[in-house]
Write a structure and sequence with these properties.
The structure holds two protein chains of two kinds.
Chain A (H helix, E strand, L loop, with lengths): L1 H55 L8 E2 H8 L3 H13 L3 E7 L16 E7 L5 H6 L4 H16 L3 E3 H12 L1 H13 L3 E3 L4 E4 L1 H6 L2 H10 L3
Antiparallel strand pairs in A: 1-3, 2-3, 4-6, 5-6
Chain B lengths: L1 H5 L3 H19 L10 H11 L6 H28 L7 H10 L2 H9 L13 H13 L3 H10 L10 H7 L4 H17 L6 E2 H5 L4 H16 L3 E6 L2 E6 L23
Antiparallel strand pairs in B: 1-3, 2-3
Classes of the chains: A mainly alpha, B mainly alpha.
Chain lengths: 222, 261
């Protein structure tokens, strides 16, 4: 009887260990499955980080990242990565903007591929007057920038430097007008060619909503 | 005689084509409106002179002018497209608005359409390389000072009374000029006892204006006149009994003479 009992208990223990083993196995397989399913997510977040670094840290003369850079560093699905990153950024009032770079007429296809785009992170909303002062802009300089961009837009985006300086001189003084144009050229809001013709720069194209600016200008009542 | 005038000549053709190309260039440089040029007339001019071309250069000039005309046509097309877009606004209308709008209003307009970039700046390989090149090529300070010493101009020297008289800043002639100006100031202030500085100083040429401003500075320094500033307006008051000495508490007051005035 005693023997029977022991055999029974042994068999019970055996079944217990068996069940324990099976449960361990199932948990292991579950974990495996879980890790398998969560693997692309971690990989994805890694790509998000890489994309963020590329867009935020300036490496060359211009901020942002070129299309080919993103393709090379993130992969072919870079657009999906940027889309996901954009969703995250939108909560912080930021967004990713794609701007087509203008290729110079003299550049060959090998030197600079056509339709190359650059991606930037910009503010989604707008700034207030006080905030604009806080990020290092003088109010009169911003007013001059608005005047310069609106003037150039009315002239189809290009005008001789003298004309622009004359306009700014009437409003902000003769000496300041020269300095102001130089500031806008240095910061990329304007560009100047060899003939002294001023045009809208890459920064204006990527930062300023030109249609909104002209609409506002037209709406202003004097 | 009239027939002779109408007949196209080679030299006239060359001149006309040059003028045409120059006008096209000016249009490309945004100095004129693209519709300022009658392209059809330009093409007819090219046709008219084409049979006269003799040299290779003439044909090159012809091709160049045709190329410039095509550029004007492209600009005309762009302008038409632009005028039909939402961005179109009459340049004169915009200029008037900018002139009348306050700075604050202009900033508000910009801020409603401005989405500044977010970026972080840091050291890059390129900037470090440039810095290293700069320091490697920079000469030691002793060497740089040597360069400065060789560039020094003449040391200060004395000047005699004759030279000063020749320069017009000393001597009888100079004194006469000052006393003439003093008399002129007294006449100008006969009625109101005060005269506006710029009305008194300003003359048709910039040189004359500067010369008068220069002489008036002596009148004030020697106590022949007083300079009064009120709400940014400068006025001159002649002193009836001048002492010939500077006022005890006088201060230096720089007045820039703008070229536009």
């Amino acid at each position: 009887m005693e023997r029977k009992e022991t055999t029974e208990t042994q068999s019970q223990e055996a079944t217990q260990t068996q069940t324990e083993e099976t449960t361990q196995e199932t948990t292991q397989t579950q974990l495996k499955e879980e890790t398998q399913t969560s693997a692309p997510q971690t990989f994805y977040s890694d790509k998000l980080k890489r994309a963020m670094h590329l867009l935020l840290f300036r490496r060359g003369k211009m901020p942002g990242a070129k299309e080919w850079e993103l393709k090379e560093k993130i992969g072919k699905n870079y657009e999906q990565v940027l889309e996901q990153l954009n969703q995250l950024l939108s909560e912080l009032d930021l967004e990713i903007k794609k701007v087509k770079e203008r290729t110079p007429a003299y550049a060959t296809q090998d030197e600079m591929p056509r339709d190359e785009s650059r991606f930037y992170i910009t503010l989604k909303g707008t700034l207030g007057l006080k905030e604009a002062k806080m990020i290092g802009w003088r109010i009169d300089n911003l007013a001059a920038l608005a005047a310069a961009v609106a003037f150039l837009l009315s002239k189809q985006g290009k005008a001789p430097r003298e004309d622009l300086e004359k306009l700014l001189a009437n409003k902000f003084g003769r000496w300041k007008s020269v300095t102001l144009v130089d500031i806008f050229l240095r910061t990329g809001y304007l560009e100047e060619d060899d003939a002294g013709v001023i045009s809208l720069g890459w920064r204006t194209q990527s930062e300023i909503d030109l249609k909104a600016l002209m609409t506002r200008m037209a709406e202003v009542k004097l | 005689m009239n027939e002779k005038q109408k007949k196209p000549t080679l030299s006239a053709g060359r001149r006309e084509l040059k003028e045409l190309a120059d006008t096209c260039d000016a249009i490309s440089d945004r100095k004129f409106n693209p519709f300022f040029l009658d392209v059809k007339l330009g093409v007819e001019t090219l046709r008219q002179f084409f049979p006269l071309w003799e040299t290779f250069q003439d044909h090159c000039m012809d091709a160049h002018t045709l190329n410039r005309l095509s550029e004007v046509v492209r600009l005309q097309n762009t302008q038409l497209k632009f005028q039909s877009s939402a961005l179109y606004a009459d340049p004169e209308f915009i200029v008037k608005k900018i002139e009348k709008m306050s700075e604050k209003r202009l900033v508000e307009v910009l801020l409603h359409s401005w989405h500044p970039l977010a970026e972080l700046e840091q050291l890059t390989e390129e900037t470090v390389t440039n810095a290293l090149i700069y320091w490697d090529t920079l000469l030691p300070i002793a060497e740089r000072w040597k360069k400065r010493q060789t560039n020094e101009g003449k040391p200060p020297s004395s000047i005699n009374a004759e030279t000063l008289t020749g320069l017009g800043v000393h001597g009888e002639e100079f004194n006469k000029q000052i006393s003439r100006l003093y008399d002129e100031l007294r006449v100008a202030c006969e009625k109101s006892k005060v005269t506006d500085y710029w009305t008194f100083v300003r003359r048709p040429t910039y040189q004359e204006t500067v010369h008068r401003a220069y002489l008036i500075s002596f009148l004030i320094t020697y106590g022949f006149a007083k300079l009064k500033t009120e709400d940014g307006k400068l006025s001159l008051i002649p002193v009836e009994q001048p002492t010939g000495k500077a006022a005890p508490n006088s201060i230096s007051f720089p007045i820039p003479v703008p070229r536009s005035s």
